[in-house]
Design goal:
Keywords: Hydrolase. It contains 4 helices and 8 strands. It is of the alpha+beta class and 161 residues long. It has one domain: Nucleoside Triphosphate Pyrophosphohydrolase.
């Protein structure tokens, strides 16, 4: 059996001036207040030939309605996760085995009012908040937890103390 490839993807750890990180609640999990996986960091696919730095700013604009951010760091490695069995019926899981991600730390240069989840006609998220970076692993679904733990290690230096 031939293994499917990983989908190229970028992710954003967006820090506000206080050193907190933007997390957003998935619109398909509206009752996710205390559940792992309901809240996540913005992330999305990379178009063929697209520069990764351009892609992460595009994804921010698409998912949270603003690109008012500057890149302050890039994770030095690609991080991967496989789609779990319960997601195998997803259309994307029929083309890809999981995602291969390059993560960026960004400084938010706008105001909270610039974050507009309704900017997309089919928003991925229905709520957002600022969180301490240490919260990320407990918010993550199991198959993304190791990545979020790595992001805390790599980008923790930009966080609130």
């Amino acid at each position: 059996m031939k293994l499917l490839p990983y989908r190229p993807n970028v992710g954003a750890v967006l820090f506000n001036p206080a050193g907190l990180v933007l997390v957003a609640r998935r619109a398909d999990m509206p009752n996710a207040e205390g559940r792992a996986g309901g809240w996540q960091l913005p992330q999305g696919g990379v178009d063929e030939g697209e520069d990764l730095r351009v892609a992460v700013l595009r994804e921010l604009a698409e998912e949270i309605g603003t690109g008012q951010a500057e890149i302050i760091a890039e994770h030095p490695e690609w991080l991967t996760y496989d789609f779990p069995p319960e997601l195998q019926r997803m259309r994307m899981a029929q083309k890809y085995r999981g995602q291969r991600q390059r993560w960026f730390a960004l400084r938010f240069t706008g105001q909270d009012s610039d974050i507009r989840l309704d900017a997309d006609p089919h928003p991925e998220f229905d709520a957002w908040r600022w969180a301490r970076i240490e919260e990320l692993p407990e918010l993550a679904v199991n198959f993304k937890r190791a990545i979020y733990e790595e992001l805390v290690r790599e980008f923790g230096r930009f966080a609130a103390r």
